[in-house]
Every structure is written in structure tokens, then in C-alpha cells.
Amino acid sequence: MLDPLVPPAGTETAPDERTEAARAEMVAGLESAGHLRPGPVREAFLAVRREVLMPQAYVRRSKPDETPPRWDLLDWGVPADREELLGLLYGGESVLIQHEGEPILGRVPGPRSGGSMDKRPVTSTRTQPVTEGDHPMTSPTPAVTTPRSGACQCGKIQFTVAGEPDYPHTCSCRDCQRLSGAPMMSWVSFPLDGLAWSGGEPSWHYTWPDSKRGFCPNCGSQVCALDDGATSIAVTLSALGNPPELVPVNQSFRENAVPWLPQVPDTRDRPHS
Ligand SMILES: [Zn+2]
Ligand SMILES: [Zn+2]
Question: Fewer CB near the terminus (10 Å): N or C of the chain?
């Protein structure tokens, strides 16, 4: 394996021979495992830098026996993080990628404490389906439930969702704040195959290369969020009219929450978390 990369001083991206060698090694590994054939995908793997494939990763800050453990989420968009992030991405090891089942996408850089951390190989991050940490599908025996109806503020967008509601929660990430114009949004997921639009369908806005938000093009209401390839869709509790039985059990991106509003307590009762 290659040594951790130390980018030359004064360069932003450090696209030097060692990163090229690391990419060549990655491609050779995928080819020998039978996952990659000659063609445009292979060429892209050779051309695309890992810091583009994986712009965020965790680094452990605590000692092995320290509790609770501490991590920092490094972000390629933060210049001070770049050298250390490159070292992680080209170090040849799996990297820490997910804290406490949080979503892979749209995370806020900075420290985390306690909880559990998932790893994965650098090469698989954007080439396999993204784990839906924020909207897990946990219903082993989907119950037959009465369809629920939802709508935007003006009524142009209307929909029904059927199946077991999963993981009602709030989110105070920057995307939710900016899109809603509010301190947080509230979400619950349903099976995608139980969704039906009536009236118009929403317009879509990608907040990440493979994750989009659905909104009414007339009134602007935020209605839903959908990851490419996902089998469930998250809809806003507000579009559903805030059903009293769907009480948020957690709040995502607490570190980005406004300080002047109480946070939703973590009352999850999920067997896998
Ligand atoms: Zn509308
Ligand atoms: Zn959010």
C-alpha cells in the first residue's frame, strides 16, 4: 500500500504522481476482482480523484481507550482539512464514513462524540448505492396501512403514500434550513412503490448529485426528498398535515440547530441502531 499522501506545499489538489499511482492501483484491484472492464467507467476511475469521489471522511481524534470516542468530519471544501483528508483517502485503509447512522450526503464538517461509526473502502463510496442512514427501511413485515394524503400549500401538488411510516424525524441541516426558510424540517419515509401523485408532480431540485428535493413550482412548498435508486421516499410531515401520531423520534444535524429552539429528543427504538 502507498504511504499516506502529503500534498506538496502550495498546491490545492496535489494531483501528483502518487495520487495517479493510487488510482491506477485501485483500478487494477477492481479489474482483478472482475468488477471493472475496459471502457469509459474504467477511464473515469483513472481520471477522477478520490477527494472528488469522497469529499468527506471522519478521522479519529480520541485515544483507543478513550470514552466516549471523538471524531472530526473532514471536508474537502474546508482548505484546512485537505491535507489530512488526502492522507486518509490515499492511505490504503478503509475510512470512517458514517456516524450514528447519519446520512452520507450533506453532512456538516466538524467534531462528533460518542455513538458508533461505520467504515467503508474509499473505492466503493460513490460506486455503490449510498446507505440510507437517515431514512432506514426497517420494516421486516410491512403492515397494510390506510393511505395517507398530502399536499402543498396551494394544492397544486397532491399525493398519497401507503405502507408503514418509517423514522419520523426532524432535520436541522443547512439544506433543510435554507430550503424551508425555517430552523428545521420534519420528515417521515414511506415505500416508494406506495406513492401516487394526484394533481401535478413536484419540481425537483438536486441538493446533491444523487439526492433531490421535490417542491411545488407554484407555491414553493417543500414536499419530499428522494435519493436516486432509493426504494423509499421521505415526505415532509407538514405536507401530510402533521399527523399527531407521527411524532419525530430524533433530530438530524443537531450541531447545526439554532440555539434558541429546543431540540427533538432521541427516542428511537430501532433494533439495528
Ligand atoms: Zn403548491
Ligand atoms: Zn436536512
Answer: N
